[in-house]
Design goal:
Blueprint: E1 5-7, E2 14-16, H1 17-22, E3 25-28, E4 31-34, H2 38-43, H3 47-55, H4 95-114, H5 141-159, H6 164-177, H7 184-218, H8 222-233, H9 239-266, H10 270-281, H11 290-302, E5 307-308, E6 318-319, E7 324-327, E8 330-333, E9 338-347, E10 350-358, E11 363-370, E12 376-381, H12 382-388, E13 393-400, E14 403-408, E15 411-413, E16 416-417, E17 424-430, E18 434-441
Antiparallel strand pairs: 1-2, 3-4, 5-18, 6-9, 7-8, 8-18, 9-17, 10-13, 10-18, 11-12, 11-17, 12-16, 13-14, 14-15
Length: 442
């Protein structure tokens, strides 16, 4: 007798009775399924049928040979009809039930997890995706830098209470580090406090120095007072400090200048001028005393008698006097035009006095220290000569090194520098007639 041949209702794989006996296939009512299609069998059952399946496990197929059944045509609905209501024989292999029970248990659990028809896929959400939370930005370093700068300045102030310039510098750096931060105002207040503290300390320090300098000025130790203030300048490098020191030095110099002007007025004679000059020299300021020295020399010279170079009778006082003669006690040019003539004596420092009369002319000149190197002199044009004509005048030169001054009848007269000779002759000439009444030195 042939072996029973059936086909899996799902995948149409060929099965035999041996497959049913070995448990590699299952028969349930009108369905036969291979082990791979058992889940499809369970999925097609109603809940009541699944309970019945669990209560009545199918019998294994008999091992006797069965008549071969032709394979139904594809699509036929009656291919398993001949199997309907076939009685199941007793099992010859009890272990098969154990295997079937285990498979059923697995299938039940699988069906329980996947019971019912598959759920439709969820509809696509129409809501826009939620915005991601913003990333945390790194901490701004500026506030920390500002705090560090302020704390650094405070520590410096605490550790260096006497270094006021350093405190201001540290506070200034704190202001820079706190720029454009909420700590800027605190840094500025710290800086203002340091500046105010330094200003008060500097004011007290300078007041003490000024008192010491004023005491030296009271003793007419003006150079010592100025030196003290100059040394004070280097104590602090701030412009405000330097400005106040300069003002204090200017005040000391003004005291010296005012006193010097008063002393000049007290020099009424040569002795007094010399005494005051020595007093001013002790001040140690070279810019003062020059006027007193000149005044002393002039007053001393004025106390000396004049020495005449012209004796009133001869032309011995002149070098090369061919064009000059003596008339009525005066040196007079022979021609209408007074040709230039020089004295036989040279002069250097001292005073020279020329007493003269001049007739109307277009030009006249008197020169001092004339020689190979030009010296000094006065020049007059026609208008000035016309104002002088008709009477005698005294022209006095004062010679003090390169400083040469002149007076005409006691009034200052401009001196022209032709050269800076320190020694030479007296020379005079005119385009008109000129008479020399006296030629004196001292």
């Amino acid at each position: 007798m042939g072996q029973e041949i059936v086909y899996c209702f799902k995948c149409q794989i060929r099965l035999t009775g041996a497959d049913l006996e070995k448990g590699t296939a299952i028969r349930w009512q009108h369905h036969v399924a291979c082990k791979n299609c058992v889940p499809a069998v369970l999925a097609s059952l109603t809940p009541e049928e699944r309970k019945s399946f669990e209560a009545h496990a199918p019998s294994p197929a008999p091992t006797a040979r069965r008549e071969a059944v032709p394979r139904p045509a594809p699509g036929s609905s009656t291919r398993l009809k001949h199997l309907k209501d076939r009685p199941a024989g007793p099992s010859r292999r009890p272990w098969l039930w154990v295997g079937v029970g285990g498979a059923v248990l697995v299938l039940v659990l699988l069906v329980a997890a996947l019971s019912g028809r598959p759920s439709p896929p969820p509809a696509a959400s129409t809501q826009p995706p939620a915005a991601l939370p913003p990333k945390a930005s790194p901490e701004d370093p500026a506030p920390k830098r500002a705090r560090d700068g302020i704390e650094k300045a405070k520590r410096f102030m605490k550790e260096h209470p006497d270094d006021l310039d350093g405190q201001v510098a540290a506070a200034s750096e704190a202001v820079k580090s706190a720029d454009a931060t909420s700590q800027f105002r605190e840094a500025v207040e710290l800086y203002d406090h340091a500046v105010s503290k330094r200003k008060a300390a500097h004011a007290a320090e300078l007041e003490k120095i000024e008192k010491e300098a004023a005491a030296e000025a009271d003793r007419e130790e003006f150079k010592a007072a100025l030196d003290r203030l100059e040394r004070a300048r280097s104590l602090h490098a701030t412009p405000e400090w330097s400005s106040k020191v300069d003002a204090a030095r200017d005040a000391i110099r003004k005291r010296a200048a005012d006193l010097y002007a008063r002393l000049l007025g007290e020099a009424r004679d040569a002795a007094a001028a010399e005494r005051l000059r020595a007093r001013v020299t002790r001040w140690g300021l070279p810019e003062f005393g020059k006027e007193l020295a000149e005044l002393a020399a002039r007053l001393a010279a004025e106390g000396l008698p004049w020495t005449p170079l012209f004796d009133g009778r001869t032309t011995a006082a002149l070098r090369n006097p061919e064009n000059w003669t003596v008339e009525n006690g005066a040196l007079t040019s022979k021609a209408e035009r007074s040709i230039a003539v020089q004295s036989t004596r040279e002069v250097s420092d001292g005073d020279v006095r020329i007493r003269f009369e001049i007739e109307p002319a277009g030009y006249a000149t008197f020169k001092i220290r004339q020689g190979p190197e030009a010296g000094y002199g006065v020049e007059w044009n026609r208008p000035r000569i016309l104002a002088l004509a008709g009477k005698a005048h005294d022209l006095v030169f004062r010679l003090r090194g390169e400083e040469v001054t002149a007076t005409l009848d006691g009034q200052p007269e401009p001196v022209k520098v032709f050269g800076k000779a320190l020694r030479g002759q007296i020379q005079f000439s005119s385009t008109g007639r000129l008479r020399i009444l006296a030629l004196d030195v001292r």
